[in-house]
Each structure stands twice: as C-alpha cells, then as structure tokens.
Structures
1.
Amino acid sequence: MEEERNSILLFDGVCNLCNGTVNLLLDLDKKRVLKYASLQSEFAKNLILEHHLEEETRGVDSILFWDGTRIHSKSEAVLKIASRLGGIWKISLLGTLLPKWIRNQIYDLIAKNRYRWFGKREACRMPTPELRDRILG
C-alpha cells in the first residue's frame, strides 16, 4: 500500500520518552508499516524542506507524523500512528471524540515535561543493522 510506505514517525532523538515509544512501536508494528527518523536527522530536515512543511512543524519538537501527503502533529500524530498499527490499535480513533484542544493540552503538558519526567540522551540512537530499513537518516 502506498499509504503504508509513506508512514514516517519523526521523533525527538534525544528524548527518552520518544525513544521508548519508538522501541515499543517497533515491537508492535508486526506489518512493518511505520518508518522512523529523528527530528535531528538530515532525513527529517530534508523531508520538512522538500515538502515545504516549515510552517506546520514550527515549534513542534517531540513527535510528527508524515502520512505521505501531509504532516500531523501533537495528538493528531499520536492517533494517526496508533491507527496505522491496525488491529486493536484502531480503537485509538475513539480519542477523536475528545475535542482537539483538550487532546493537545494533554499532549503539550507531556511534551513540555518529557525531559524532566523521563530524561534525555546526549545523542540520537543509532539503528542496529536489523533496523536500518525502518529507521531512516
């Protein structure tokens, strides 16, 4: 599916919460539909420039989701990522019943405190040989 090949999660490569989430998703994504790139990578920077996404991504430094057509941020990105996993994870679409401003307030609270609550790495993760086709740039 074209949609699946273009499912790219852009994450804060030095954030322990973001890295933990990527590790969890790597295990849960049995169909291998998601690709990953740290926001600090050349790949992510080039994707944002190539598709003229500077305005939509300004100020977002935790998680973004590129679906091949558009970029999603904050709670919308989280819901899109979960729904891409399929199966039981499609239940995450119930989150859309909450108004976006409420979902984003919760997201912003976690994003603002993620380093304090979960810590931070000195450098972005390096993909293992087994993960090179899934972790970009």
2.
Amino acid sequence: MPEGIGSDPRRKTTPGRWRVLGHPEGILIYEVRCIVESHGWTEPAVERFHNLILGRSGAYRRRLNGRTAFSDATSVLITRPGDEMSVSHPLGCGDSYTCVQVDPRVLAGRPDGARWLETAGWEGTSDASLDLAHRMLIAEFRRGLDHFEMAERLHRFLDGVLSRTGARDEPGTDLARAVSRRPATQAAHRRLADRAREVLTAGAYSLSLDAVAREVGASPHHLSRVFHRVTGSSLTAYRNRLRVRAVLDTLAESDERPLRAVAAEHGFADQAHLTRVVRDHVGHPPAHLRRLLAHTPRT
C-alpha cells in the first residue's frame, strides 16, 4: 500500500468509530459511525488524498472549499488533495458513511482516471442500484475477502460510480446550477431544499407535506416545486429513498426483528407496504435483502 494512503478526510475533525474493511494495493476502504460531541463546526482540515465518500445513515453539514451544503444517507462526495473541509451535526444525530481512498497512480491507470483526477468538491446522490451495490460490497468485505478479490471488487464498484451518480466531465456539476435564475434566488432555493432534507432526515416520516412545509416556512406547492428544481427529485421520492436506506441499515444489523416491526418504525403502513416500496427501489424484497446483507463471517 503506497505511503500515505490511510488518512481519513474527516478523522482529524470528527470523532467516531472506525473500521478498516480492506486495503489492497493503492486503495483503502473503511466505514465510520460518527459520534456527536458538539453541534458546531469542526476545525477545517486539508485533504491529502482522493476520496469517494458514500453516505449510509444520518446527516451532517459540510463546508467544502468555502461552500456549505447538506449531506445525508443519499449523498456521494468526491474530493481530492488540497480540498478543505469542516463538518457540523445540526440535527444532533451522527452519521455513518463509507470512504474509498485511492492513490492517484491507481486512478491514473484506469480508463476513466482523468475524470476522477479532475473531479473535485463534487456532491451528488446515489441511485437505488448504486446504494444496494455499495451495501452489498460492505457486507462482502465484512465477511472476508483476500486482497486480490478486494481490489477487483473495488475497481468494478468504481466503474459505475461517476455515471450512476450523475457526475459529468465538468467538475462541480449539480442540478441547481442548471436553473436559469439569479444567484441569490438559486442560493435561497438551495437553502430551502436543504432545510426540507434536514426535516425529513431527522426521521420525520410521519409528517404530512403540509407539516414539512410549515417546518421550513413555505407553502406546500412552493416547497414541492423548489425541491424538485434543486434536487431533481420529488419530496415523496426523496422521503422513500431515505426510508429504504434506513431499512437496509436495520436489515444489515439485525436478524431478529420482525419485518412488521421494521415497517412500523420507518413509517410504512404495514409489512406489505414496506415490501412493495423496498422491492420497487432495489429490486428485492426485505427478507431476501436481509440474507444478502448479513454480516455472518464466512466459514
């Protein structure tokens, strides 16, 4: 493993529980569950490596190269050496994420290496297929792989990340920039969308649209329209994406809880509703996903 690979972009600023999942030559993959000691901003830290950070649960605010944004379980962040980042946890909860750290020489050897090396400070969202691939990758690493298989699986995973998150050749592309409005209006709309994301990420799955709109100080129609413009997603679709990710976390960590209890916890009408929504998003029913994501080590 090249010297230097192994320093986390948030390790200096955010306390938490860390676990290295694998480190084949030139690549490090690890998972983190943050512990919130303060809701304020951490000291800025300059990143030294190329990092792919994939959200799994919870939420936080990040200030990357002077720009503030909201990150949650759907977020994907790509950073490179020289980027400066600090984080805060305004909701009072921690977050969990996976980081894939790659040596630039490894990236340069990939057919899509130029896009990875040029992309900086980019945040997008993972679709359902990428999120499931991410979680299944973690489950496989937890069960145990040799370095050869680790490297092959990581490269295959990286193959689809840029296209499946919507990243383009231009660094920093995001949907909000495509809205042909004044910068001040764009910023206000982004803040409104982020505030709605905060409300929903806090686990307010039982709130109505009217209640969410009251929380953020907007009419339901205006909130729905702005949220779609900024994120490219309806509020309903975003809420379901959050719920499905929370369910996947629960299924990966527990073999014992009845599915009807999981459905009730995450605001589904019943077990059948849970099964239908999860299958629509990731193509498998919860019972099958529980087996796929189990952490039982290989014998």
3.
Amino acid sequence: MNFFHPLRSLACGLLLLLAATAALAQGTPLRLLVGFPPGGSTDVIARQLALGLQQELGRSVVVENRAGAGGQIAAQALKAARPDGNTLFLSNAHTVAIVPVTVLNPGFDVAKDFAPIGLVTVNPDALAVNPAVTGPLAGGLKDFTAWTQAGPGRASIGVPAPGSAPEFAVSVIGRAAGARLTAVPYRGDAPLVQDVVAGQVPAGIGGVGALLPYVEAGKLRLLAVNGPARLPRFPDVPTYAELGIKGLEEVMFTALFAPAGTPAALLRQYHAALAKVAASAAFSERIASLGVSASVGTPEELGQRVERSRLVYERLAREAGFQPQ
C-alpha cells in the first residue's frame, strides 16, 4: 500500500491553491467560459454574473465565448483547463444534462471532469403562438392542438435546436393531445422567434426571455409554460401540468462549474461569492428582462440536480424515439 499517495494529493492541492493565490495577487483575470454566442440568454447571464463576481472577488472576470455544438466546445475547454481556479464555466442545462444523452461522444463527463459550484438561474420555456396565424384560440392549448390537425402546414412547432428540451416537449404535447405535431429545429431562440412572429411557423417553444418582448407587444401569445408553477410575470398562463400534460415539470437552468481537481478552498470561495451575487437585487433586476430567476443551492445540490435532469431528459428522448448521434 502506498501511504504517501494521500500526502501527494494534499501537496498538489496546496500547490494549486498557492498558484491561484499568486495569480490573484498578480491580477490574472478569471476566465468565465460560455458555450454560446454573445447576445444569447446564457451569455447575458454570464456577463451579469461576471460583473458581480468581479466585485465580490476583487478580481477581473473575463467572459470567453466558446460557442458551438450545444456548449460542447466550452465544456471540453473546461475539462482541458488547469484546476488552478483561473477558469470557470457557466453552463446551461442543455450542455450538462441533455448533450450527455443525445450525443454519443460529447468529449466530457460532468461527474468526472467538472466540480460543481452552484446553481445560478432557473430558465423556464414556454409555448407561444402567432395570433395572426392561429386566430385568438380562446380555449388555449386544447384549441391549438385541434387547430393543428384541421389543415395542412399547421402542425409545425419551432424549437431552438435538435435534440433539445423543447423538441422533446413537442413530442410529449402531441402524445397527450392525440395530435401529430412536428418539431422544426432552428439554430437558437432568436431565429425561431423571428419565424414565429413572421408567421413562417404558427408556434414555437423557446426561452421565456426570447419570447417576452413579442408577448408584451401582442405579436405572440403564450399558451403554457413548463415547470412546477406559473410565472409571476404571466400569472394567467397555465403550466403544462395544470392542462393535464405530465412529464414537462423539469425547468432549464444555468450553473457554475470549475475543472475537477480545483482545491476545495477555492470552490468554497467561489460558491460564497456566487451566493452573494445571486442574492443581490442588482443581479436579479438585470436578469429579470430574460424571464429568468436567480437560484443558488449548494454544490452537492447542483450535482444532484444535474443527474436528476439527465435522467428526465434520457427518458424524454427515449419516449420521443430520439437516437443519440
């Protein structure tokens, strides 16, 4: 038995902590990786988080966009980064809970390669229709699904990406309503919403933040939201569960991770800073326009949340007949 192995591990951890302390003293910027382009909701949350962390840590925080492949490029970059506290990753649920069940070789293992720091926001999705295309649909979702079956070209529902939570939601809604619905994948929420507003597709499922300006302008109408409760901003919009549709209770989220092997003292420091930022009125107000809410738990709770979400989306993908690619 090698009795010195624990001592070597402790020594390595101390060296990394000393290196991180030296980097902080020298003003080395903290990199915050984001797996999506500038301007999207995850990027906006990251930039607001960076402002708060910079103030709490007394250290420059630089957002680094590594866009592509549903966040896989940024996730792989985190895996390759030194665990010295100089690189963090703001991921959404798609990257850490859906990509692992829809991609055969994502190039990372969340449980082995990442150290959870904490949840940052919860991000509900909603089903929106174009009233000019579908009519008033006073009866809501039930009327809409009946309308989709009454003529050609009506059953298409836009989703922000293939193999995404909204694509699986289309399948769940169709089965529950006994309707044949077709998910039409886009490259993100922005082009999806533009096509729904323009009437190219009658409806779409996307992040509430992307839909919000058009709902307030009367160009889109929300029929349902996912998650366990209605949105405070839209108290008249029911959840899927209230409409008798089960399986869409899971809500998307963003969360903060460090490379596996990052010293525990640094992880505690980052979690404490994150908790203060997320609890601040400034952060909550800045992200309110995105239709998201701040929410922070312990690192252990984040690990459990990721695994629970992964199992949910694994089941939804299987029920939808989605084959990992």
4.
Amino acid sequence: MHFEHLIEINDRDNSLSVQLTHAQLWAGLVRRATDPQHFMPQLDAAHILSRSEQGLRRELHFGSLVVRDEVRFESRQAVHYLTEASEQHGGGSLTMRIESPDGESLFVRFTYDTPLPDDSGDSGEAVKVASYVKAAYREADIDTIRLIRELVEDQKLESGDLH
C-alpha cells in the first residue's frame, strides 16, 4: 500500500498558534527518531543499536512485537524510516519530508509504503483495512506535529537534536 499526505505546519490565519521555523521542525523530526517513546506511548522500550551523522538503527518493543528499523537523515530535509520485515512485521518505509513551496510556508509530506494491499482492489475487506490504516497513519502524523509544537513551546528542543 502506498499512502501519502501533507500537513501544513504554520497557519498564518491563526495568531494563537506558535509558528515553527524550519530548524525547529527539523529538530522535532529528528527527536521523533531518537526519542520514539515520547511520540509513541504504546512503545514499551526503544534501543538505539547504532548511531551516526547519517542516521541510526533501532529496536522497538511493543509488548512481544519487536521491530527493527533504520532511520536516515537527509540534509535537514527528510527523515527516512526503513522497517525490516520479520515473522512479526511486514516491514515497509516512511518518509517525512519538509517542503516549503514558496520559501515561507512549511509542510511535512508523509509517505508510506507497506506490503499491505492497496484499497483499489476488489476485496471489500482490503478496502476497509487500507482505509483504517491510512486514518491511523494520518492521526499519528497529526499527533507528531502537535508533540513537536509542544516541545518547541516548552523549549525542550535543543540544538543537539539537529543532525
């Protein structure tokens, strides 16, 4: 299944909303990779297996489900998650890319590719599953941006979060 959507970061019509800079948004996306428990409350444990300037390898524990992934950082523009397939998990990928079409506005494009069947098939069940998964991804992504905004408001993003 391929799924992609955009989230607008700064709403210029809402003066009550904290306006994020590109650097703050990037630091938040990096923080999501390095501190996944802050962004995924269902996560029981997370272990960074290796780390470099280009990314990291992680092991995530959701109860008895263990997921291993590789996270790659691309020039303060994108974070790529490549999840290994295993007996417990089908694998897949997620890319979070910062876009600024006019140089001022900020968006994050979330792109998922998973082995789940697309919702374009004949199976009514496949359509239901794909629709449910897409809605869950969208809600998780909205929550990610909300949590980044909270970290910025609480001044809890540090320059060390910038890769």
